[in-house]
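Chain A, query sequence.
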Amino acid sequence: MSDPNKGYDYDEVAQNVFFPAFADIAEFALEHSGKRAGRMLDIGCGGGHLGFTVLQKSDFSGVGVDINDEAIEIANNRAQEWGLADRVRIVKADVVAMPFSDGEFDLIVSRGSIPAWQDVPAAFAEIWRVLAPGGYAQIGCGLGREETRERIMAKLQERKSGMFGPGHDKKFPSKSEYEQIFADLGISDYEFNYDIGNWAIIRKPA
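Chain A, predicted structure.
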């Protein structure tokens, strides 16, 4: 989740550089999960790009969560602009203490937020708690499919600096670290996918 005490320019980069990646990631989540309707949660939603793209491509209703006030304002404005205000709610909350019921969400996505989480195992415990039986969670980072990645990397090279907000100097968990977290939480149905980035995918038994 984003630093609650600082604004950031990530939304401008998400809109003008990363934007093509969100369609790739959303399509992968919908196809790989086999889900097209229900309740969706976007953790560390920022300006809402990924979650809103999922909504545009499906019949889900959803919630976006971020701890940054600026992100929440931007996401609420974008929900209006994209015609999604009646299908999505933006909530200020920390990933380790989300104000949702057990098993509330059928699909959970989060792109790029892990480096800002203060307690990664506790965050995954919360994700597992709010994931519905039969639910699917896709957590990680990525710039989409190969062609999309190449286009984005070219733009990043042009811009060179100022790409990321607070927290992005931290690393993502390694595969072995993910596996230990999942073992501790009793999560046995998981996989790692590198087709559209670096993703940990978990499924909860129905």
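Residues 1-7, 164-169 have pLDDT under 50 and may be disordered. The CA atoms of residues 68 and 83 lie 23 Å apart.
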